[in-house]
UniProtKB/TrEMBL annotation, chains A, B:
UniProt KW keywords: ATP-binding, Kinase, Magnesium, Metal-binding, Nucleotide-binding, Thiamine biosynthesis, Transferase
Entry binding sites for Mg(2+) 5: 231
Name of the gene encoding the protein in the UniProt record: thiL
Catalytic activity reported: thiamine phosphate + ATP = thiamine diphosphate + ADP
Function (record text): Catalyzes the ATP-dependent phosphorylation of thiamine-monophosphate (TMP) to form thiamine-pyrophosphate (TPP), the active form of vitamin B1.
Protein name in UniProt: Thiamine-monophosphate kinase
Binding, Mg(2+) 3: 46, 91, 228
Record family assignment: Belongs to the thiamine-monophosphate kinase family.
Superkingdom in the source lineage: Bacteria
Binding of Mg(2+) 4, residues: 46, 60, 91
Length: 330, 330
């Protein structure tokens, strides 16, 4: 994945959305969008039509808003497009599925530059194409001054049964695939104007790249519960605990490598916080029957009788991001 | 359909979204959402899982933004929820399909009142339930001050082949099912502070109610091309003409009843404009082989050799709504 810093922010000079009519804008966007074998009817008609071989379809939706989910100073349009793919496709993967198609809605101040929309489309189309995902439709809507929001719906298919959050069993291993805390650490570095200290973390914050194929692989390996880490390891583990009516006991001894990896960038306390509570990581968290953790996954705890989440035996109330709260926890 | 005027505008007093955390808000929303036989996994996990009996799924998305798509002075949250269902389900119907499920994203200023969100949910859930549609997922995101936007994705199923815009044949009849110009006329009355002159038109503007079942029925009757009227009869007819590489000749003599119906409310010129160019109607426009127009549909023109749209033999450039244009035509 390349994430260049050359594209322009949304409010930069050049033509704006108000300078093009909708058809002209769509003519610029459509050719960039990847198709795929699942697409029976693509963009341009009333709806898309997708093949759903298995006789069922997974569906999820996730939005990003400028100023809340990204800042133009820190993220290009291309980053935003890539991140939209990641957060939606990770949800499909977390059910054990493969994403087949995306629909994208842009709600934008007409003063938004066409260049930004082109960059976002480039990033979204590239990330989708790399993952074998078609982009099959969308909508454009004008918005009040300063507003730029994107909403993506992802559709996907399962090979077998879905892996829900509610299937964890006492005695299961709790395991992670992918990084922990990189997105949060990258954000901290941007906030401290220290992006050069760890460009890989910053890059991951801007455009996470979870291993989507691990979702179906975990399902085939017998995962009993799974989700992707959107709001932090502790909080998301709490969701599995609640849905499965179990306790999840996390062990920071098993997270030592994850924490150690971040210490040079954000210090010891920052590293621990990022690993335990950092959101937007989109790595997969799953439970597996004892001794059933697949290669490439690493155990981070166990499933016990009880409720909630413990960290090294201490009950925690969580942390992580709440969209509408007056004060968000870090 | 009842559209009471009792619910509060989005910025009214009472608790706001900032007073609840996301889980508390979702706990208020989830119980209102209709399920259905197509839902294998509903809201609350990473994604929904829907049955797709036919082995394929229709997918479309459409957004509404406060200040552009509705004004709080004129539309309640319930109206907005109903309109969201209508505009998305009409797109599925226009392919000849039946809507099975919706996903809903709310992008809102945290100062938005919880009461407005509850009203919107009520309207959306009621309109969905009346049409046999499940609501299976969504997303919540905070937005800059003053912004309130909703994005809905609709999924649906086909009994047979999809009816595209591109199948119209020279010699076909062009026909409409449902009203023409009511939404635009209702908007004009609101703009003129004359809503009491024709409450039925105003009600239709606030919450259109197309006959979704006519889409599959038209498909079964041999419709060669179809769409729903989102941007005005002339402009949408132009879309079929372009996609099918034909000319569509509209005859206002066939629209006399439609125009006459609106004259008392908006005058003769206004009535003609509303019928020909009024958007957001979501009635169905379709082409049928000669003598194949189903009962309940009425012919409004014919398909000819050529391109574009004529009205009584005169070529027209259209009209209708463009989302980002500096000056929208009425």
């Amino acid at each position: 994945m390349t994430t260049t810093r050359t594209s322009r922010p949304a409010g930069d000079a050049g033509p704006t959305l108000a300078d093009l009519d909708e058809d002209q804008l769509l003519e610029r966007i459509f050719p960039a969008l990847p198709g795929g074998p699942a697409v029976l009817v693509g963009p341009g008609d009333d709806t898309a039509l997708l093949r759903a071989r298995s006789g069922a379809v997974l569906a999820t939706t996730d939005a990003m808003v400028r100023g809340r989910d990204w800042l133009d100073e820190w993220s290009t349009g291309e980053d935003v497009g890539r991140k939209l793919v990641a957060q939606n496709a990770a949800d499909i993967a977390a059910m054990g599925g493969r994403t087949t198609a995306l629909l994208v809605t842009l709600v934008a101040d007409p003063a938004t530059s066409v260049a930004w929309v082109s960059d976002m489309t480039t990033g979204l189309a590239a990330a989708a194409a790399e993952a074998g995902i078609a982009v099959v439709g969308g909508d454009l809507s004008s918005a009040p001054t300063g507003t730029l929001a994107l909403s993506v719906t992802a559709l996907g298919e399962l090979d077998g049964e879905p892996v829900l959050r509610s299937g964890a069993q006492v005695g299961d291993q709790v395991a992670v695939h992918g990084t922990l805390g990189w997105s949060a650490a990258g954000l901290l570095l941007l906030q401290r104007d220290s992006a050069t200290r760890a460009p890989d973390l910053v890059r991951y914050h801007r455009a996470p790249l979870p291993a989507y194929e691990e979702g179906p692989r975990a399902a085939a390996s017998g995962a009993t519960a799974m989700l992707d880490i959107s709001d932090g390891l502790v909080r998301d583990a709490g969701r599995i605990a609640k849905a499965s009516d179990v306790r999840i006991a996390l062990d920071t001894g098993l997270l030592a490598d994850d924490i150690g990896r971040l210490v040079p960038a954000v210090g010891a306390d920052g590293a621990r916080d990022c690993v335990l509570t950092g959101g937007e990581e989109h790595s997969l968290l799953a439970c597996f029957p004892r001794a059933g953790v697949p290669s490439g996954w690493r155990a981070v705890g166990v499933v016990q009788d009880g409720s909630g989440v413990t960290v090294d035996g201490t009950v925690t109330v969580g942390g992580g991001w709440d969209h509408f709260a007056r004060r968000a926890t870090p």
